[in-house]
Amino acid sequence: MKFIQETLRAPVLAAALAGALGLAASGGVGAAPAIPAPAAAAPEAPALPQPPEVAAKAYLLVDVTAGGQPLAGSHIDEPVEPASLTKLMTAYLVFDALRAKKISLTQTCPVSEQAWKMPGSRMFIDPRMQVPVEDLIKGMVVQSGNDATVALAECTGGSVDHFVQMMNDQARALGMKATAYKNPEGLPAPGHLTTARDLAVLAQRLMRDFPQEVGYYAIKKYHYPGTPVSNENNRNTLLLRDPAVDGLKTGHTDAAGYCLVATAKRDFPNVGQRRLLSVVLGAASENARAGESQKLLNWGYTAYEAIKLFDAGQPAATPKVWKGSADTLKLGSAAPIIVTVPAGGAARITTEVARPEPLIAPFKQGRTVATLRIKFGGQVLAEAPLSVLEDVGEAGLLGRAWDAMRLWVR
After folding, report:
1. How far apart, in whole angstroms, are the C-alpha atoms of residue 203 and residue 294?
2. Domains along the chain?
3. Which of 57, 87, 138, 323 is catalytic?
4. Contact yes or no for 147/118 (Cβ under 8 A)
């Protein structure tokens, strides 16, 4: 069986887009450079929009709607302290436990001495209280309460130590190769580190895997009865500045600086809602992290445009199939196929499909049989798999024999 490459007439992108920075849509991490270097004889790469100056130690902007395609970034693999961005992973595990019915929103959790005495930002719960899981989630997300976070870790994992082990196991499962957790809340600890790339992976998986639960991150104010009202405002001030922003999480320690993972969705006629995600780490102040995040989001929406190339289930390629009950094999994606390119650059998109030849039946729906290469201005932007959209069974005895003979004489 040989492997062939076909250039498609219509440009195509798979939902599982692996971006030019190597950030996989599934949450994994690739090794591709920021922009693939052209070979000596290759045409000159087209100029890409220059991102704005961002006053932060590290930053990353990705287009979630285009499968996590990176648009801009700096120092994205540099280890940093995540501060309260740690709570994104804590929330992931709590939401997963809710889905598995290991805990429930109405279940009450005791407040341990350890949770009560947590320093830093707090929900101000105490050992006299039995607090419902849902209120602890709001205390962790909206108020960034370290006490609420520890109470959730104990309620979900049995102990803080076991919960931290769960966090690190989940980080490995998501492909967060440069992340190590030492606690569930994000207070400084030796070896408690992550990167902008890993945070983007985590935030996208959180939104994709728990679309209903991430609504907590859009809550602007929360106060638990019997506690002080001084800490009720969500620290993500972009929620008040930009109606398109609906999450996600802030973080701050002296070592980490001011950090923000922000996401917004805006309506566009060609693709519907387009979601971007920004990661800004190590800004100088609370106002700066919000301003730099807003700058990145606005730039991403104006400098790049999203193009829907195929609807969900629409064939992107129909190669010939041998010894099958059908003559062709429909290949595509179960999700809408969208690509993000510099504004006005849609005409420069080309694609090609690399696949085995010959394709011999049977083929089951969902089986990946080809690789799609997406190019912009002749340079490879990304690669993604193409899957079988409809079953193709084997032909009858005569049909298989006829195709076998035709293959033999080719």
Report:
1. 17
2. 2-20+311-409 (2.60.410.10), 58-307 (3.40.710.10)
3. 87
4. yes
User: Pick the catalytic residue: 57, 121, 138, 144?
Assistant: 144
pTM for the whole thing? 0.85
DSSP-derived pairing of the beta strands 2-7 and 304-310? unpaired
144 is catalytic: yes
Summarize pLDDT for 376-401 with one digit per residue, the tens.
888 877 777 899 999 999 889 988 88
Cα–Cα nearest to 66, from 25, 33, 34, 27: 25
Residue 19: per-residue pLDDT: 35
User: Residue 65, exposed/middle/buried by CB under 10 A (0-12, 13-18, 19+)?
Assistant: buried
Partners of 350 in beta bridges = 375
CA 234/CA 222 separation, integer angstroms: 8
Q: Which of 84, 293, 333, 387 is catalytic?
A: 84
Q: Which two tokens stand for residue 87?
A: 């709570």
End-to-end alpha-carbon separation of the chain, Å? 13
Calpha distance 175→24 (Å, rounded):
9
Secondary structure of residue 191 in the 3-state scheme: coil
Question: Can 249 be counted among the known catalytic residues?
Answer: no
- Percent helix, strand, coil in the chain, to 5, is 30, 30, 45
161 burial (CB, 10 Å; 0-12 / 13-18 / 19+) is exposed
d(CA 222, CA 200): 26
